[in-house]
């Protein structure tokens, strides 16, 4: 692909709001339906035809970028393409059951939930799984509350959670929200857990160590068995952040490495939609000893069919009912369709793709050998500028400036779904952007529908509708 073919460049297009296209005042007659002081007599609406509407939304969609359009190599996010058959399964009218129905009348629903509990337990090497948490971060919080309940039940008052400095920000937040002090662990010069520093950090205050493996640089923690023994010998628990599970899927299990608790990001690893603010799911798996603390309800199989039950010492609820049901349906469909061999194939290709892409780019990758993702560095060029410029070459850029261990990091995770041509497109975008002039980088993106936005104001002072933008002027 060359520069002139940027796939989502729509700089020439301004698509007006529907209300800017047309405002028609219509009379409404709500007499007798609602109290008079709550109703209006007139309403201003866009008076548009169906084709006008269809074109409006199609134009908007063409100003956007998505994983259905091209690669989306955001490191740590595992933005893999979501196969559409999972949507068909979730759209089955039988999937639309009311959550308050009695167990007897929703055996199929409960069977699916039970099946997913079992699939995930098997894939992670865990003994029991709750499907309730609605995201990875919520799964972490749930897992840490379970660790807390476990220690409290043993009258073992512990105040600290150890987390590597390279961990995802949600790990620190989850530990702090559960009331723990966070002990930050430095990395060794190879980018892995520093065993000596870990030794020094562990004490009888250690409630848990949170780790992801491979870590956020894509490096496998080779000393995981030793790490696990160190934590367990001190009476602590080992928590697995499952966001990087795509690297190990079908090949290695956190449970076998000694982890006691883990969350799964089904919207990363198991190809359910991710981003855009839609619902996700962050199921949590635990070893036998912790199963009694899981959130309620869980689903079990009895001689009379499936039933929901409350674990003996449950930490309570972390979400309504069984969790984000339709997301769980999609995860189930994905796992069932791929099977053992398909899951193992996914992780193999995820690792191969990351390694192929890294071999094709001119940027240095300081740490390795890596698995499903790598942290390249843009050296003396600003990583955010290079990323913005990559947009002009028609691809989505990687995660930038994180983890901090690599200066000007470009954390790149192509996932298994990309073919060689698409990886070559990505490499071209990397290399061309990296080699561009300072001016091109500082003014990028110049070929997209939205130019460089003020990210700090957007985060600190969000305006969530065009009306509030209007009001402020
Ligand atoms: C994405 C991610 C999380 C948080 O998961 P969400 O589902 O986004 O809440 C936690 N840890 C790591 C390493 C992640 O990449």
TrEMBL record:
Segments for region (Disordered):
439-473
Catalysed transformations (reactions): N(6)-[(R)-lipoyl]-L-lysyl-[glycine-cleavage complex H protein] + glycine + H(+) = N(6)-[(R)-S(8)-aminomethyldihydrolipoyl]-L-lysyl-[glycine-cleavage complex H protein] + CO2
Spell out the Polar residues composition-biased ranges.
464-473
Q: Name one GO biological process term.
A: glycine decarboxylation via glycine cleavage system
Keywords attached to this Swiss-Prot or TrEMBL record, sorted alphabetically, are: Aminotransferase, Oxidoreductase, Pyridoxal phosphate, Transferase
- Pull one GO CC term from this UniProt entry: glycine cleavage complex
InterPro entries for the chain? Aminotrans_V_dom, GDC-P_C, GDC_P, PyrdxlP-dep_Trfase, PyrdxlP-dep_Trfase_major, PyrdxlP-dep_Trfase_small
Q: Where is the Aminotransferase class V domain?
A: 145-275
Residues that span the membrane, as ranges: none
Q: Where is the Glycine dehydrogenase C-terminal domain?
A: 346-439
- Would the keyword DNA damage turn up in this protein's UniProt record? no
Instruction: Provide the E.C. number(s) assigned to this enzyme.
Output: 1.4.4.2
Give the enzyme's main class according to its UniProt record, as a single word: oxidoreductase
Question: Looking at the keywords, is Oxidoreductase present?
Answer: yes
| The protein, known as | glycine dehydrogenase (aminomethyl-transferring)
Q: What is the lineage of its organism?
A: Archaea, Methanobacteriati, Methanobacteriota, Stenosarchaea group, Halobacteria
């Amino acid at each position: 692909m060359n520069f002139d073919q940027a796939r989502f460049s729509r700089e020439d297009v301004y698509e007006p709001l529907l209300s800017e296209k047309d405002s028609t005042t219509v009379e409404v007659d709500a007499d007798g339906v609602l109290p008079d002081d709550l109703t209006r007599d007139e309403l201003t609406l866009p008076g548009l035809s169906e084709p006008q509407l269809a074109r409006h939304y199609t134009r908007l969609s063409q100003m956007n970028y998505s994983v259905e359009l091209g690669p989306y190599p955001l490191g740590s996010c595992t933005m893999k393409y979501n196969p559409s058959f999972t949507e068909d399964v979730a759209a089955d009218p039988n999937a639309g059951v009311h959550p308050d129905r009695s167990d007897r009348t929703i055996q199929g629903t409960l069977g699916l939930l039970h099946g997913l509990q079992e699939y995930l337990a098997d894939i992670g090497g865990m003994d029991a799984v709750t499907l309730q948490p609605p995201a990875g971060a919520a799964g972490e919080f749930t897992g840490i509350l379970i660790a807390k309940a476990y220690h409290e039940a043993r009258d073992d008052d512990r105040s600290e959670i150890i987390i590597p400095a390279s961990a995802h920000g949600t790990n620190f937040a989850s530990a702090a929200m559960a009331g723990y002090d966070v002990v930050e662990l430095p990395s060794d010069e190879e980018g892995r857990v520093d065993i000596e520093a870990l030794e020094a950090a562990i004490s009888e205050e250690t409630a848990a160590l949170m780790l992801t493996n491979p870590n956020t640089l894509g490096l496998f923690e080779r000393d995981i068995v030793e790490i696990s023994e160190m934590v367990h010998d001190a009476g602590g628990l080992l928590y697995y952040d499952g966001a990087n599970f795509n690297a190990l899927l079908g090949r290695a299990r956190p449970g076998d490495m000694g982890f006691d608790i883990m969350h799964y990001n089904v919207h990363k690893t198991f190809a359910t939609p991710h981003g855009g603010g839609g619902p996700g799911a962050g199921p949590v798996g635990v070893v036998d000893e912790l199963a009694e603390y899981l959130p309620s309800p869980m689903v079990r199989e009895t001689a009379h069919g499936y039933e929901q039950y409350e674990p003996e010492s449950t930490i309570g609820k972390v979400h309504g009912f069984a969790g984000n049901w339709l997301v769980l349906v999609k995860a189930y469909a994905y796992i069932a369709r791929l099977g053992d061999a398909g899951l193992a194939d996914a992780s193999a290709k995820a690792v191969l793709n990351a390694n192929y892409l890294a071999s094709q780019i001119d940027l240095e990758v300081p740490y390795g050998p890596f698995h499903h993702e790598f942290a390249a560095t843009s050296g003396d060029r600003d990583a955010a500028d290079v990323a913005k410029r990559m947009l002009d070459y028609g691809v989505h850029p990687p995660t930038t400036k994180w983890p901090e261990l690599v200066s000007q990091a470009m954390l790149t995770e192509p996932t298994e779904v990309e073919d060689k041509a698409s990886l070559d497109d990505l490499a071209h975008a990397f290399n061309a952007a990296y080699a561009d002039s300072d001016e091109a980088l500082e003014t990028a993106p110049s070929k997209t529908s939205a130019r460089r936005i003020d990210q700090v104001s957007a985060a600190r002072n969000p305006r969530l509708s065009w009306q509030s933008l209007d009001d402020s002027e």
